[in-house]
Amino acid sequence: MLHQKVLELKRWAPTFLSNHKTLFTILWIFGFGSLFMWQSPNFEKLLMLRRAPAGPMPRLRHIAFNITDFGAVGDGVTDNTAAFERAVAAVAKKGGGQLNVPPGVWLTCPFNLTSHFTLFLAVDAVILAVDDEKKWPVMPPLPSYGYGREHPGPRYGSFIHGQNLRDVVITGHNGTIDGQGQTWWKKYRQKRLNHTRGPLVQIMWSSDIVITNITLRNSPFWTLHPYDCKNVTIRNVTILAPVFEAPNTDGIDPDSCEDMVIEDCYISVGDDAIAIKSGWDQYGISYARPSTNILIRNLVVRSMVSAGISIGSEMSGGVSNITVENVLVWSSRRAVRIKTAPGRGGYVRHITYRNLTFDEVRVGIVIKTDYNEHPNGEYDPKALPSIEDISFTSVYGQGVRVPVRIQGSQEIPIKNVTFQDMSVGITYKKKHVFQCAYVQGRVIGSIFPSPCENLDLYDENGRLVSLSASQNITDIDYSI
Fold first, then answer.
1. Three-state DSSP state, 22
2. CB 342 within 8 A of CB 311
3. Pick from 397, 413, 419: nearest CA to 327
């Protein structure tokens, strides 16, 4: 059934997408190819046997090392932790450089990066994480969370980690970083872990970060987590995890980050493909580092459990000036979502969505104000977030059950939401598939399906047609 569905999508996608962005066609081919390869039961054997001839590694820095120079063996069995640690130390001693990882499966415990550093993964190179949590470091909770996301107290560190760095590049010829998350997911479901799981790649308090032309897969927890970083570029990255039973394997989670671009990526994971965050309740309010000036474009994403692109729910430091454009969300539970709750504080404002395509999505656009997960009982329920200045332009799709569900509340009304140029084919023939509660905003021109009564209507030239009788009308139906 799934194979038949994928074939239908592949036949449909090029024709449909050519009417919007030619780039989507290329991303579909690349994304589905990666997905089929990754799902193959013989994937590891293919990695070992189907290797391209090893050409010379490009020199991206003046000084370059090969991981084999430090005694590493790429057989998937040898523990190469000491080799990676020695290699990074050698780069640091030189004041910067490049570490090349050739074809092979390079098993290692978690290791740290250094500044002025390029980690280059050749075609068919896999850096493979040990799956024994006893070999992963334990770290204090993030200061803007004050609490491990899953357990009180410390958390496991990430597989590849960096703090207080500058000028770091992770790139290659689409080599892979594999977190071997299967063991972690099983222990999490069985409640056998004492600390919050660690991300696959986490870079903290750093600047001038570039991550491009690699595959990240099977993270124990969030996959790529830039935390309180500036000037970050993520481009041409494939991120994969099973769409079910791989809990909290978010693709990319910008967290209190500034000046960031995410583009030309394919993401199919077990939670949000992208989730923009900025801290959790009183800890995020106190840390006070917003996520701002983030551009997300030219993506194909999938999330059967959560959403394609989310903001929140941990957004207590604020989220602003976000642009999401040229994004296809397919076979997902939700497409784009903003989620928050009383106690979060902070704000979500100046968010622009344009040229979105939804295919076979249960709910297209979601804004939710009662996502009540809290680190502990010490949060202030009167710390109310604000949500305003959100625009949706050029939204298309097919096979969508509920195109819009915007659920404000009396204490958290949603202000200044704009819809323009929207045509989404629906699968459910009920009248109220464009659902609203406590939302103020406008519709410019005609859109399909018909908007809720909470919104003012303007014609194509921006002239007022009619004002809403009440922005407080509640028309939310979770049975759809």
1. helix
2. no
3. 397
Tokens of 234: 């993520």
Which residues are identified as catalytic? Answer: 271
The one-digit pLDDT tens for each residue of the chain (480 residues) are 434 444 344 334 433 344 444 444 444 444 445 444 444 434 433 333 334 345 678 778 999 999 999 999 999 999 999 999 999 999 999 999 999 999 999 999 999 999 999 999 999 999 999 999 999 999 999 999 998 899 999 999 999 999 999 999 999 999 999 999 999 999 999 999 999 999 999 999 999 999 999 999 999 999 999 999 999 999 999 999 999 999 999 999 999 999 999 999 999 999 999 999 999 999 999 999 999 999 999 999 999 999 999 999 999 999 999 999 999 999 999 999 999 999 999 999 999 999 999 999 999 999 999 998 999 999 999 999 999 999 999 999 999 999 999 999 999 999 999 999 999 999 987 777 999 999 999 999 999 999 999 999 999 999 999 999 899 989 898 887
Which residue, among 375, 348, 154, 386, has the nearest Cα to 282 in the 3D structure? 375
pTM of the model: 0.90
C-alpha span between 108 and 122 (Å, rounded):
17
Bridge partners, residue 444, by sequence: 420, 458
CB-based contact 307:296 (threshold 8 Å)? no
Question: Could you tell me whether strands 224-227 and 207-217 are parallel, antiparallel, or unpaired per DSSP bridges?
Answer: unpaired
**In Å, what is the CA distance from 121 to each residue of 176, 303, 444?**
7, 27, 48
Q: Tally the C-alpha atoms within 13 A of residue 276's C-alpha that lie toward its C-beta.
A: 32
C-alpha 69/C-alpha 55 separation (Å) is 17
